[in-house]
Structure formats: structure tokens, C-alpha cells
Amino acid sequence: MATKKRIVIVEDDEAMQRLFRTYLTQDDHIVEIAGDGVEAVEKIALKDTDLVIMDFMLPKKGGYEIIKEIQEMNGGSPPVIAVTGRFQDAAAEKDIRSQPNVVDFFLKPVDHSEFMAAVDKALSNG
After folding, report:
1. CATH number of the domain that 110 lies in?
2. Domain assignment present for 1
3. In whole angstroms, how far apart are CA 32 and each of 8, 38, 61, 67?
4. Is residue 13 in a domain?
5. Can you tell me the distance from the alpha carbon of 84 to that of 58, in angstroms, rounded to the nearest whole number?
6. If you average pLDDT over residues 104-120, what whole number do you get?
């Protein structure tokens, strides 16, 4: 039996929180939700986190700030899958993808199969 992985979902949209939780708990992962950037940093700092699924447009603290704090407290881990509902031009997407820890990027709405493949890949490389 595979070891359960702890995944923190950083998302302020409750419908997206539920959707991601449904996807991830079907694979028996331990899922925690953070509704804003401050809560995200607190949850990631509390215990070992295997993966972060993160919207970059958040209240209180944005994705770039969270990435910087993750780097400072965890020395380069955990991996992050970035998601955003806002239209991103190619330069903005490239900038997000170039951030430390970011292993994949999705525009909402996410395709279930592609999203889960990215989650599996991130967890197997971690």
C-alpha cells in the first residue's frame, strides 16, 4: 500500500477547494485547505507537506510571496502546482513556471486527467 501524501490546497474559491479535495481524496491523499496566503504559510510550516496546489491570486498574501517563504523555511521543498483562473499571457505563465518549486501550471477550469497526472508526477519526483 502506498504511503499517504499530505497535500495543502491553497485556494480562496470554495467551489475549487471542494473540487480539488474530491480529486485528491479519491487517491487517498491527506488534504488540508488554506483559504488565503497567510493560512497557507502556517499550514505548510506546521508539518511535512508533500505537495502544494496553489492559486497565485489570493487574499492577504499572493503566490509569489508564498513561494519565497516556502523557500526560506523549507530549503526548496515542497513542489507546487500553480493554478489560476485569471487569463495569463504567455509572459505571465512563463514567469509563474520559472518560480522555485513550481513543477506545473494550470488555467482553471482544470482537466481532471491532466491535473491528476501532474499530481502523480510531482509526488513521485518528491
Report:
1. 3.40.50.2300
2. no
3. 5, 14, 18, 18
4. yes
5. 10
6. 93
Phi, psi of 77 (to 5 degrees): -125, 160
Q: What is the mean pLDDT of residues 100-123?
A: 92
More confident residue, 17 or 91: 17
Residue 35 in any domain: the answer is yes
489570493: which residue's cell?
Answer: 58
Say yes or no to pLDDT of 117 above 60.
yes
| pLDDT above 50: residue 1 | no
Distances (CA, A) of 43 to 38, 59, 96, 112: 9, 16, 22, 25
pLDDT at position 112 over 90: yes
Number of domains, the chain: 1
Would you tell me how many other CB atoms lie within 10 Å of the CB of residue 43? 18
Domain of 84? 6-125
